[in-house]
Write a structure and sequence with these properties.
This protein is α/β, with parallel strands linked by helices and 384 residues long. Among the domains are: 159 residues, P-loop containing nucleotide triphosphate hydrolases (Rossmann fold, 3-Layer(aba) Sandwich), CATH 3.40.50.300; 106 residues, 3-Layer(aba) Sandwich (Cobalt-precorrin-4 Transmethylase, domain 1). It is built from 15 helices and 14 strands. A hairpin with a 2-residue loop joins strand 9 and strand 10. The relative contact order is 0.11.
């Protein structure tokens, strides 16, 4: 995989006032355009400090930071332009929520870019819809739950329409359903062309999602590259303060028992099942959804399959926002693709309602299973 660097640090050093050691020491990291990237490390490894350098909040004590090959300028006008292209979502949402109402807070960023009012309104509407806060736009920000405030902070970043979205521990403090929804959104944004970078010490999340990882330990960059090479060294993993991902260990154990190669490495449960199990598979129908979701759309898909024991799932921000008023009974509202594919691998027919612009993403996910020995018959219902 080759890609141009969109953000790069060279010999980056930074020390907080009063500390006796650098929080970042000679860190040289390359964030490649269009690559799903995770900054991994234990608490205190320097992940958040690195992110503060990605959009110029911190100025390095040594080394430099570059965007698209050009060193950062820390002049006010240059930083404003940079922050319109690189948005950072902090771990604590209260550090970046300033508006009295939800809509006022999301409007703040794009309105300061000098955009026409109609463009500001379009961006705000889109951002609130993507994070599921459209119905709460008039809510006082002080009356939001923690999870809602996390969504609001993300909406403010998305309203800037950034080329790079950086999220610091995005799932920390979220319930499991909200965490799944957020990572699905991250996948959608990446698919739409945004370079998404997240920091986490959740190795299972990182392993399932990332194309590439960069590992920090006590302010030093100790590894950059594909996940498997790093996790194959248990001593290095231990010294970093993290653990090997569950899926990595399960695959290793099963392959050792069977006497087969560990590669290809499954990152998800359905990839693991595809690699280890055989048998008849169900059919997978993809139903694209744009601005409406109605029972006849599902009825038509059921007719295509000609059966009754069919499971139904969702994938995408738009289709999820349309569900409450649609009258469509759905089995899997969250983690829809993995849940439907699990059913499919057990021989059941499934229907996945997905955002219209995610059809090719879903098709690619299905085709990826062929790498693990499984071919699933997929059908795409014509857009109506």
């Amino acid at each position: 995989m080759t890609s141009e660097n969109i953000i790069e640090t060279v010999g980056l050093c930074y020390r907080y006032a009063g500390n006796d050691r650098d929080s970042l020491s000679e860190v040289s990291v390359r964030i490649r355009k269009g690559v799903k990237t995770v900054i991994l490390g234990a608490n205190g490894a320097g992940k958040s400090t690195l992110f503060y350098h990605f959009n110029g909040v911190f100025e390095p004590a040594g080394g430099k930071v570059m965007f698209e090959g050009e060193p950062f300028s820390y002049r006010r006008k240059a930083l404003r332009k940079l922050r319109s292209r690189v948005s950072v979502v902090l771990q604590n949402p209260d550090d970046q929520i300033f508006g009295q109402t939800v809509e006022e807070d999301v409007t703040y960023g794009p309105s300061n870019l000098g955009l026409p009012p109609e463009e500001v309104s379009r961006r705000v509407d889109r951002a609130l819809r993507l994070v599921g806060l459209d119905d709460l736009r008039d809510r006082n920000t002080m009356k939001l739950s923690y999870g809602q405030r996390k969504r609001l902070a993300l909406a403010g970043a998305l309203a800037m329409d950034p080329e790079v979205l950086v999220m610091d521990e995005p799932t920390a403090g979220l319930d499991p359903q909200m965490a799944l929804e957020l990572m699905e959104l991250a996948e959608q944004l990446h698919h739409a062309g945004t370079t998404v970078v997240i920091s986490t010490h959740d190795v299972d999340l990182a392993y399932a999602w990332a194309d590439e990882i960069h590992v920090l330990r006590m302010g030093h960059l100790i590894y950059s590259g594909p996940s498997e090479e790093f996790y194959s060294d248990p001593v290095q993993v231990y010294m970093t303060g993290v653990v090997q991902p569950s899926m990595f260990l399960i695959n290793k154990s099963l392959c050792d028992m069977r006497g087969v190669e560990e590669a290809p490495y499954p990152r998800t449960e359905t990839q693991l099942v595809s690699k280890m199990a055989s048998g008849p598979k169900g059919r997978f129908v993809i139903v694209p959804v744009s601005d409406r979701l109605e029972p006849p759309m599902v009825d038509h898909a059921v007719e295509m399959l000609g059966g009754t024991e069919i499971r139904l799932g969702l994938y995408g921000c738009m289709v999820r926002s349309l569900l409450p008023e649609s009258g469509v009974p759905v089995d899997y509202v969250f983690d829809g693709f993995e849940s439907c594919m699990s059913e499919c691998l057990m021989g059941r027919d499934v229907i996945l309602l997905c955002d219209e612009d995610c059809v090719d993403l879903i098709e690619a996910k299905i085709s990826r299973l062929e790498e693990f020995g499984t071919k699933v018959q997929k059908l795409v219902q014509m857009r109506g």
